[in-house]
Design a protein that fits this description.
CATH architecture: 3-Layer(aba) Sandwich
Number of strands: 9
Strand content: 5-15%
Order of helices and strands: HEHEHEHEHEHEHHHEEEHHH
CATH class: Alpha Beta
CATH topology: UDP-N-acetylmuramoyl-L-alanine:D-glutamate ligase
Number of helices: 12
Helix content: 40-55%
Distance between the termini: 16 Å
């Protein structure tokens, strides 16, 4: 990443003295389950530590107590049962970006219909991760008609299942396959891993920050949170995803220096994002 690019990015994060929380976005995180209640919390934490003004975690009633018990007091909660309730909340609370998928455990056909209704109805950024991607396996062409501004964040295994392509083939042609997928579906694709690939189909970025210490549960959830925050203050979705990946990796590097390669956990990365941004000049 060139110094000029970083300076331009940091200027976008500068805050006006007369601004208020709604200037920095209200993010809705639809994530978490009984088995993985922390997934949504990590998304929220990544968003808050990277500058989001407000973050609400949407959960089912049966996991609310679990999630609340491990959350930060700044995270708000919304209990829902139907997609109609989600739409009502999006409209009345002026949601500016959405994360869907981390830690969700339900029948994939039900989840597919639920998410499809969202991405075919809203026109704001929607970040799909984990189960939010998996429920479109072999039917990713349905992304083409989405009205939402989609960002999908698969790791190599998820991308292989999504496209029904062997992992070895993807490894040998990562940039081309990611760029083709992004172009064909008019979205931003973030293929996570060593040297994460970010592509809009027209532009592609290969990230050079990060460390094997980040190979830990929840690290991707934190990244989704950072992306959801940056898309609220940057006009270019590709640039927002690119810098989110860069900052996420750099945060992991900084944490590794004090925690060691084997001792880093996802919440460490999330908590250090703000320090990383400050180090870059904000």
């Amino acid at each position: 990443m060139k110094k000029k690019e970083i300076r331009s990015f940091i200027l976008k994060l500068k805050r006006d003295p007369d601004s208020h929380k709604y200037n920095y976005g209200h993010i809705l995180v639809i994530a978490g389950s009984k088995a993985m209640p922390g997934a949504g919390v990590l998304c929220c934490l990544g968003a808050l530590r990277s500058g989001a003004g407000l973050v609400t975690c949407a959960v089912k009633d049966d996991v609310l107590n679990q999630v609340c018990s491990i959350s930060k007091p700044e995270i708000m909660f919304f209990v829902y049962e139907t997609v109609t309730e989600i739409f009502d909340f999006i409209n009345c609370r002026k949601i500016s970006s959405i994360i869907v998928g981390p830690g969700l455990k339900t029948d994939f056909s039900v989840l597919h219909d639920f998410i499809k209704k969202i991405i075919y109805s809203v026109n704001i950024p929607v970040i799909l991760d984990a189960a939010g991607i998996a429920c479109f396996n072999n039917i990713s062409n349905e992304f083409k008609n989405a009205t939402a501004k989609l960002i999908v964040t698969p790791h190599l295994g998820e991308f292989s299942k999504l496209l029904d392509i062997d992992i070895a083939e993807i490894k040998n042609n990562r940039e081309r396959i990611v760029a083709d997928f992004a172009k064909e579906n008019s979205l931003i694709c973030v293929l996570k891993g060593n040297n994460t690939v970010v592509s809009s189909g027209k532009k592609t970025y290969i990230n050079n920050t990060g460390t094997p210490a980040m190979a830990t549960a929840g690290s991707g959830d934190v990244l989704s949170g950072i992306i959801s925050s940056f898309v609220n203050v940057m006009d270019d979705m590709f640039e927002a995803a690119k810098f989110a990946v860069f900052v996420h990796g750099l945060s992991g590097e900084f944490v590794e220096k004090c925690r060691g390669t084997s001792g880093v956990i996802a919440s460490d990365i999330a908590e250090n994002v703000c320090c990383t941004i400050k180090h870059l000049g904000a």
